[in-house]
Design brief:
Two copies of one chain form a homodimer.
Chain A lengths: L9 H24 L6 H8 L3 H7 L3 H25 L5 H17 L6 H8 L4 H28 L8 H19 L2 H4 L7 H16 L14
The structure holds a DNA duplex.
DNA sequence: CTTAAATTACTGACCGGTCAGTCAGTAAAG
DNA sequence: CTTTACTGACTGACCGGTCAGTAATTTAAG
């Protein structure tokens, strides 16, 4: 990390830290105002540099957007997968750990704005949306699908349509993040403690998955 | 409606239909591209008029945005409340009817893009967000809260923290709408049949609310 | 009836501010 | 001196908003 052959002068240190500083500033403003409504001057000012500096590190505003998505959230997914791989408890414990861990690593941090940003701009940047889908959504989905399947295989959960249920499991989590960056700041009356929200979601979910429940869903798509 | 003193010439008919045509075009483009990225020329072209016509009916781009929100979704809320008021079945039936009716009246129609639009732009238009909160979110919340409370009072549901649970009930519904206007069009692999999605949500929910379930949520906020 | 005047609904060229992107210049470090 | 990291004035395209003009229709006069 600090070999003597690489003199850690303050100027060089800045050079290396710049991209992170710029993407961090861009992430904050993109999530707050949206991509189109954010000016590069504002991003530069927030990072304490001038607009020209942005173009030393990124080719265009769109390239900056791509970098924001790429470098912000993919590392967090790695950690989630590592946690799931070495988990040893019950499927319910794993599911609970996934939800709470997501809140600690993504939801409650500066990364919490990424889902809202991606939702808002997916239509304008299909290739970034595709990247996000393949590297974030698919992997997150897979984590939950595996947990559900494990619980069903062990008899801990009743059989459900896993491919559909996974969306229902993830949706409240995503909405929590989106809410905090959209209507939450404006109308905060209903913004409860995120922990309690997640615990309630988990509680309803685990009980909804208990074996022996009678299905309320029509079996076939006859009607 | 058709008194002889008001000649229903094609020109006058257009005059009365224009605002709807313009807000419909604006809604489609706002939800697809976002407010800032949508040009007034495009809205006018989609409605088959020139840009100047927009300013015969709306003072500014922002006023058009407000009109889109106001006139699009509030009437749909009226219908939802009417349905709930005259409902006579069980609380579970009411909840199910609310979910499916929402899909028919809002989710599957052109109004389905409103949630995504509002989420994206709430930060830039606090007063519109406040209006949306007071006239759409609060009222929708209230419908679900009442249904939950009715079920708990009758013993049909176990006691839960209704003010938190309502968010968990609504979140998957909102995410369904948001998804269809964000990453859905880009990466459609996971976009299942909305009916099955809602039925699965309802199935998990009703079973999660059954009396006799043991709570997995910590009782107090001690930690 | 004919036809001129007035009104209505709409047009599209134009203006001015804004902002992504450029580049000649500066100053600190080596 | 050269190199490196950065600056900020500048430019040109774009877009929200304006308004003089036009065509369709109605009304009124001859």
């Amino acid at each position: 990390m600090s070999s003597p052959s690489v003199p850690e002068s303050s100027r060089r240190r800045r050079k290396e830290a710049r991209p992170q500083e710029l993407t961090a500033a861009a992430l904050a403003l993109f999530t707050e105002k949206g991509f189109a409504a954010t000016r590069l001057d504002d991003i530069a000012a927030r990072a304490g540099v001038s607009k020209g500096t942005l173009y030393l590190y990124f080719d265009s505003k769109e390239a900056l957007f791509e970098a924001v998505i790429r470098e912000s959230i993919v590392p967090a997914m790695d950690e989630g997968e590592a946690m799931a791989a070495q988990h040893r408890g019950s499927a319910a414990d794993l599911l609970r750990a996934l939800l709470l861990r997501w809140w600690e690593v993504i939801g409650s941090t500066s990364l919490g704005g990424v889902p809202k940003l991606m939702m808002s701009e997916a239509g304008n940047f299909p290739q970034v949306a595709r990247y996000y889908h393949d590297n974030v959504i698919s992997r997150g989905r897979r984590l939950v699908v595996d947990a559900l399947n494990r619980g069903i295989a062990s008899g801990e959960f009743r059989p459900v349509d896993v491919e559909v249920a996974v969306e229902v499991v993830i949706a409240p989590v995503l909405m929590l993040a989106i809410w905090r960056y959209s209507l939450g700041p404006c109308c905060s009356e209903e913004l409860h403690d995120p922990r309690r929200y997640l615990e309630t979601h988990f509680d309803l979910l685990i009980n909804g998955l208990r074996p022996g429940a009678k299905s309320h869903a029509p079996i076939a798509a006859g009607a």
